[in-house]
Amino acid sequence: MKPQAVARILDANLDRAREGLRVLEEWFRFGLENGELAGECKAMRQALARWHSDPLRLARDTAADPGTQISHPQEEERRDLGHVLQANCSRVQEALRVLEEYGKLAESHHWLAPGLAKLAKEMRYRLYVLESELLEGSLRQRLLAAHLYLVTSPVPHWLEVVEKSLRGGVTLVQYRRKNLPDREMLWDLKQLRQLCDRYQALMIVNDRVDLALVSQADGVHLGQTDLPVAQARQLLGSQRLIGLSTTNAEELAQALNSGVDYIGVGPVYATPTKAEKPPAGLEYVRLAAEKAHLPWFAIGGIDLHNLAEVRQAGASRVAVVRALMEAADPTQTARAMLAELQGIPALSW
User: Fold this and answer.
1) If you write DSSP's letter for every residue of 173-233 in order, what string do you get?
2) How far is CA 148 from CA 120, 169, 252, 292, 321, in A?
């Protein structure tokens, strides 16, 4: 047995757990303005600090520690807020597991008073719950902030069009492609995931829950005849987003109580994307504005020419396909659409 080595392990992981908790605490405090959860993280930090005694600190030998030179590319970048929070949740959980196991060893040899292993175990299970709350909140907050939703179509150089739209302010992209082999769709999704991460945009997959999971998408968008929402939620878990298309008052009412995160409302106008569906019209937009308590996006034939009347009918969020995918200048078009949604006069653009 090497008491000095165990002491160094405990010291390093007490530091690691407390540092990670501080990162989480700051987001609860300043990002979510949740004093209760910020206070809980602070209490955990202070509870661990009571075990961080001088004998453990004195065992530290940073100069001779080979671990200070070990790094990994995933530690050197953070693609978005969710990545920061998830990385630090994992960091705390891993450190607590180490404290639990080596704490048992130290306690059994009377190198440490009983209690640290039990405390670390209880905290680790609590962190699993906090992680779910954090990540759910992060994705849903980003969804709430999204007002222009791009649904892709197979135009030439489609990924370049998506990037130009992202430059214009799009923050939510749905990959929609029919009749393409799964292997090719996965390749598309890999590239789209990297692009969305670069611009801190949410990535949604149309219909396919399996591809959403494999591609690490932020969620899936379902139609009325796709996999039922309950089964999709079971597969996706509580953290990812689920959207659902609706075309009438009955579908809207059902969707609002189905457990989805957002709703598609339309088609507002006739569109070749949904040629088999008659337009629901502006009356349906007005109904959604009155009834919907979830984020919802008007969709179907919306472009710069009719966006003002869609907004006046009550829509603050819209989803578009051709308006951006076939635009001469997707960046400027996206900016102009967002300006209209925010009620900014067109002359400023």
Assistant:
1) EEE---S--HHHHHHHHHHHHHHHHHTT-EEEEES-HHHHHHTT-SEEEE-TTSS-HHHHH
2) 44, 8, 20, 18, 11
Whole-number pLDDT of residue 194: 94
**221 touches 238 (CB < 8 A):** no
**pLDDT above 90 covers what percent of the chain?**
73
Distance CA(94)–CA(75), nearest Å, equals: 15
Which has more confidence, 209 or 197? 209
| Among 88, 112, 83, CA closest to 20 | 88
Residues with a known catalytic role: 176, 245, 274
User: And the tokens for 144?
Assistant: 């709430």
237 Cβ contact partners less than 8 Å away, ≥ 6 residues apart: none
Give the pLDDT score at 348.
43
User: How would residue 237 be classed by pLDDT, with cut points 50, 70 and 90?
Assistant: confident
CA distances (Å), origin 56, targets 43, 53, 95, 96, 258: 21, 6, 15, 16, 52
| Largest Cα–Cα separation, the chain | 77
Q: pLDDT higher for 62 or 265? A: 265
Read off the pLDDT band of 26 (50, 70, 90): very high
Residue 110, C-beta contacts closer than 8 angstroms, at least 6 positions apart: none
Per DSSP, what are the bridge partners of residue 241? 219
Tokens of 225: 């005849």
Query: CA-CA distance, 269 to 278, in Å (whole number)?
Result: 8
> At which residue do the structure tokens 């939703």 appear?
149
The residue that leads in pLDDT, 81 or 108, is 108
Q: Structure tokens of 330?
A: 């997707």
User: Helix, strand or coil for residue 87?
Assistant: helix
Q: Spell out the residues 6+ positions from residue 260 whose beta carbon is closer than 8 angstroms to its own.
A: 222, 229, 242, 243, 244, 294
